[in-house]
Amino acid sequence: MLDETNALQVRIEPWAEADLDLLYRLNIPEMLEHLGGPETEEQLLARHKRYVEIARKGTGRMFGIVLLPSLEAVGNIGYWERSWQGEIVYETGWGVLPAYQGKGIATMAAAAAIASARAERKHKYMHAFPSVDNPASNAICRKLGFQFVAECSFEYPPGSTMRCNDWRLDLGESNSLNGEDSKSGSVD
Predict the structure, then answer these.
(1) CA angle 138-143-130, nearest 5°?
(2) Which GO terms describe its cellular component (predicted)?
(3) Which of 34, 96, 99, 138 is the most exposed place for a label (fewest CB within 10 A)?
């Protein structure tokens, strides 16, 4: 359990072979309710292989989110290339284990991942596509200065269509953690 009297600190660490256990811990219904549910063993092993290899291929980065000072792995975050509306952009996504949600961990980890993507100077934009039914992830996008673009449909998982919000961040700009957008709603 977290000691909430101390300010939380997190670190993101490059995804490694040893992170397979964390991926299993993240592969639970409450973590994947907005993404089609848990994956099969085969899908999970393929995902882990992609996560391990992505940095070597130069198409993005995946990280484990580590709580300090305990060094406990509490989630994952990453960004990867995708073609979106005629251009190559980074897409980002994250997950924090249920016991650690609502404490700002995903926001801190996402800020670190954004800094990593900015340092690469490879793509102009990073997009996030949280489900329209996922208020926490949409709030994180607002906090990090992403601009709301529009609702859109995504095929994810393959064979299923989900409604998402398209959030875009200009990686060439410095954004604060209190970004404003045109979509109404409070940030928790």
Answers:
(1) 20
(2) cytoplasm
(3) 99
C-alpha span between 186 and 41 (Å, rounded): 38
Phi-psi region of 121 (alpha: psi -120 to 50; beta: other; left: phi over 0): left
Residue-wise pLDDT for 85-123, tens only, equals 999 999 999 999 999 999 999 999 999 999 999 999 999
Tokens of 64: 């484990």
Separation of alpha carbons 185 and 96, rounded Å = 22
pLDDT tens digit string along 30-86?
Answer: 766 656 666 788 988 999 999 999 989 999 999 999 999 999 999 999 999 999 999
Q: Which residues contact 2 (CB under 8 A, 6 or more apart)?
A: 8, 67, 100, 103
146 touches 169 (CB < 8 A): yes
Query: What does DSSP assign to residue 62?
Result: E
> Average pLDDT for residues 173-180, to the nearest whole number?
50
For the domain spanning 9-123, the CATH number is 3.40.630.30
Please give the pLDDT value at position 129: 93
What is the DSSP-derived secondary structure letter of residue 8? P
